[in-house]
Specification:
195 residues, 75% helix, DNA-binding
């Protein structure tokens, strides 16, 4: 008989979110169930219900967790890019990867299709907080660029491969266009600040 170590509530919750994230990347959003996550971390379904309330609660918590960890990385890349250490492409790749390889695009779509109407709230709130945190860069133009970049990354994650192929464009076409958009936005902002 194995004895499970009792974890503090926050550690138990974090272990569940990390297991959910792994399931999302490995098998897609439909695999992120209370039962699958509980099995992965050696906990009970009831334990996860206690922490998340429902499968949609788990998915919403996962979306928030993904958004927070990804936006923290994007924040660092934006600061590096603005200071000349990084490149706009770093910001583009991190954003696109978040929605594609990290599964945020598939998760958001799955939650919306499953009737979880407030599915995007954690993602939207975290992106908003990121823009506010970088307030010296958050002009109307910068917020508009953030919107376009996020929507491009989401769309690319959902259908970028087939669409690029159908249009006979390289798979990186959307990323390339997003990078150009960021470069143009930075140039415009620098010109405005110089005036």
């Amino acid at each position: 008989m194995s004895i499970r170590k009792r974890l503090p509530p926050e550690e138990s919750r974090m272990a569940a979110l990390e297991a959910a994230r792994a399931l999302l990347v490995e098998a897609g959003p439909q695999a992120v169930t209370l039962k699958a996550v509980a099995g992965r971390i050696g906990r009970t379904h009831a334990n996860l219900l206690h922490h998340f309330g429902s499968a949609s609660g788990l998915q919403k918590a996962l979306a928030k967790h993904l958004a927070e960890t990804i936006c923290a990385t994007i924040r660092e890349a934006v600061i590096a890019s603005r200071s000349g250490i990084g490149k706009p492409r770093d910001v583009v790749d991190l954003t696109f990867d978040a929605f594609d390889r990290e599964g945020a695009g598939a998760l958001a779509s799955w939650m919306l299709l499953s009737g979880n109407e407030d599915a995007l709230d954690p993602i939207v709130e975290t992106i908003h907080d990121l823009v506010v945190d970088l307030e010296e860069y958050s002009s109307d133009a910068q917020r508009s660029t953030t919107l376009a970049l996020t929507l491009m990354a989401l769309g690319d994650a959902l259908m970028g491969g087939p669409l690029a192929k159908g249009l006979e464009l390289p798979r990186t076409a959307a990323r390339d266009r997003a990078e150009q958009m960021l470069i143009e936005g930075i140039a415009t902002q620098q010109a405005t600040q110089a005036d």
